């Protein structure tokens, strides 16, 4: 076969493949949706195909923080200018050329720049290597006419099987694109006003303080009745969107039982170091608590009445503490979590000189002396994880039961991302836990918080597992002397 003929055949095969890919002849809108679901593997609104530096999916290079709004219909993000590997430029620019060409190659129908800055230098049309053409628009979405235009463009993509998706973008992929996306989700997925604002907050990668204009506009948006879609279509295109975390509460009876266990006092007979059968029940209940809350360190304190000499009382109080300590060890509580100490008659509960007072004063008390609690957070998230709420409710009741306890909340991140971003994120993580505790009645003077960014890794940032663990909150106990 002649070389030129071979080249022609090869060219024809490549052209056929690219043309078939670019034409995107789908049987239905659902086929189109399924294609893009498989292409990007994004199930939920907060998941990203490209990260804050534009890395992740090389087919989408030039974009930044690429997320789905409506599967196969509309996507959101930023333009990767500041972190671009080559030809870096100011962040306040529209999409770089490779971003436009990559979107065109993936059969996106159009891209929309949501700011006006520097758009005059951007091409209105871009043709990819496989022949697809992408239209590029500037529409801010800051008035009803512009919002309506964006909704109609989206609606057309929903209704037409061979109409490619839109890419709606701002600079970082956080605020303005999040605002427009929230309106699309309210219109086509039925999000309430509060759900829309919550979606916007959770997808600004923690940079959401202020922006009252945007939050108000999301709340005030009223969906258009002539742009309604079927439930079947809605089910296909709408991503999973985490709503506000459902509040977990502790019933009053649970609180009272927990307080009783935390303040357990084990009585002893006069001159005795033997644990009575009745006292074992209370100790066993406390052991169950320690096993369920493995982050607690506890001191076992022995006490006596005022009868007898100081030396005798000191010795017997130590023996009482030691026998309970040994029992906890035998029942499986780790030795490194326990200490014991005899206080003699130095901490009398009742100063009266009678039998009832003496019976009250001969006792063992448990005191929480340390907390080693970690709470892991999802990447770029700072909302209190649902799975951590039960432990934090316990911390609330621990503080309520012990007026001399204070809590320090420390926020941390892994090493990925910008230093300033991580510092802000760690502070927001610590603040979210601080607010969870103080909003449940704990005096703010007894809780403090601080963010440490990437400066205090506890685990290796060289592994995925280590990075996951470093995205954490640490709770530490502070005792008034």
Descriptive overview:
This protein folds into 2 domains: 18-237, Protein tyrosine phosphatase superfamily (Protein-Tyrosine Phosphatase, Chain A, Alpha-Beta Complex), CATH 3.90.190.10; 252-479, 60s Ribosomal Protein L30, Chain: A (2-Layer Sandwich), CATH 3.30.1330. 40% of the residues lie in helices and 17% in strands. The protein contains 15 helices and 14 strands. The protein has helices spanning 3-23, 29-40, 97-105, 144-159, 175-189, 193-202, 212-220, 231-237, 252-262, 277-292, 310-330, 355-361, 389-401, 419-438, 464-470, and strands at residues 63-70, 74-79, 110-113, 125-127, 133-138, 166-169, 265-267, 296-303, 338-342, 363-371, 373-376, 405-411, 447-451, 472-479. Strands 1-2-6-3-5-4 form a 6-stranded mixed β-sheet. Strands 7-10-8-9 form a 4-stranded mixed β-sheet. β12 (405-411), α14 (419-438) and β13 form a beta-alpha-beta unit. α5 (175-189) runs parallel beside α7, α9 (252-262) crosses α13 and α13 packs across α14 (419-438). Mean pLDDT is 91; it is low at 8-23.
Topology:
Layout: H1 3-23, H2 29-40, E1 63-70, E2 74-79, H3 97-105, E3 110-113, E4 125-127, E5 133-138, H4 144-159, E6 166-169, H5 175-189, H6 193-202, H7 212-220, H8 231-237, H9 252-262, E7 265-267, H10 277-292, E8 296-303, H11 310-330, E9 338-342, H12 355-361, E10 363-371, E11 373-376, H13 389-401, E12 405-411, H14 419-438, E13 447-451, H15 464-470, E14 472-479
Parallel strand pairs: 2-6, 3-5, 3-6, 8-9, 12-13
Antiparallel strand pairs: 1-2, 4-5, 7-10, 8-10, 11-14, 12-14
């Amino acid at each position: 076969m002649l070389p030129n003929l071979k080249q022609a055949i090869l060219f024809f095969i490549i052209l056929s493949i690219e043309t078939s890919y670019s034409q995107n002849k789908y049987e239905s809108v659902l086929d189109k949706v399924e294609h893009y679901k498989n292409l990007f593997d994004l199930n939920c609104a907060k998941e990203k195909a490209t990260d804050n530096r534009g890395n992740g999916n090389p087919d989408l290079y030039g974009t930044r923080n690429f997320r789905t709004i409506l599967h196969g219909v509309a996507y959101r993000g930023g333009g990767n200018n500041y972190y671009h590997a080559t030809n870096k430029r100011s962040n306040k620019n529209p999409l770089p050329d490779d971003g436009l060409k990559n979107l065109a190659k993936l059969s996106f129908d159009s891209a929309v720049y949501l700011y006006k800055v520097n758009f005059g230098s951007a091409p209105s049309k871009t043709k990819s290597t496989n022949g697809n053409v992408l239209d590029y628009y500037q529409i801010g979405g800051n008035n009803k006419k512009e919002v309506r235009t964006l909704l109609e463009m989206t609606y057309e993509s929903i209704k037409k099987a061979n109409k490619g998706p839109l890419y709606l973008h701002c600079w970082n992929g956080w605020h303005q694109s999040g605002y427009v996306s929230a309106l699309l989700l309210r219109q086509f997925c039925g999000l309430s006003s509060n759900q829309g604002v919550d979606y916007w907050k959770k997808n600004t990668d923690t940079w959401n303080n202020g922006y009252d204009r945007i939050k108000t506009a999301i709340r005030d948006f009223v969906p258009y009745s002539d742009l309604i879609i079927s439930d079947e279509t809605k089910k296909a295109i709408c991503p999973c969107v985490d709503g506000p975390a459902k509040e977990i509460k502790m019933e009053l009876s649970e609180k009272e039982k927990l307080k009783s266990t935390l303040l357990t006092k084990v009585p002893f007979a006069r001159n005795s170091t033997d644990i009575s059968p009745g006292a074992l029940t209370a100790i066993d209940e406390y052991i169950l608590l320690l096993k369920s809350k493995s982050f607690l360190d506890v001191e076992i304190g022995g006490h006596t009445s005022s009868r007898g000499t100081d030396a005798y009382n000191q010795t017997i109080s130590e023996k009482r503490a030691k026998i309970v300590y040994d029992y906890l060890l035998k029942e499986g509580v780790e030795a490194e979590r326990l200490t014991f100490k005899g206080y003699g008659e130095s901490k009398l509960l009742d100063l009266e000189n009678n039998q009832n007072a003496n019976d009250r004063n001969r006792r063992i008390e448990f005191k929480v002396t340390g907390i080693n609690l970690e709470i892991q957070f999802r990447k770029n998230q700072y909302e209190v994880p649902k799975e951590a709420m039960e432990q934090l409710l316990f911390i609330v009741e621990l503080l309520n039961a012990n007026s001399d306890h204070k809590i320090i909340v420390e926020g941390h991140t892994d090493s990925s991302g910008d230093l300033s971003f991580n510092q802000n994120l760690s502070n927001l993580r610590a603040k979210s836990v601080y607010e969870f505790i103080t909003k449940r009645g704990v005096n703010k003077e007894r809780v403090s918080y601080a963010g440490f960014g990437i400066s205090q890794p506890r685990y290796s940032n060289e592994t995925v597992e280590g990075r996951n663990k470093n995205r954490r909150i640490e709770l530490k106990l502070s005792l008034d002397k």
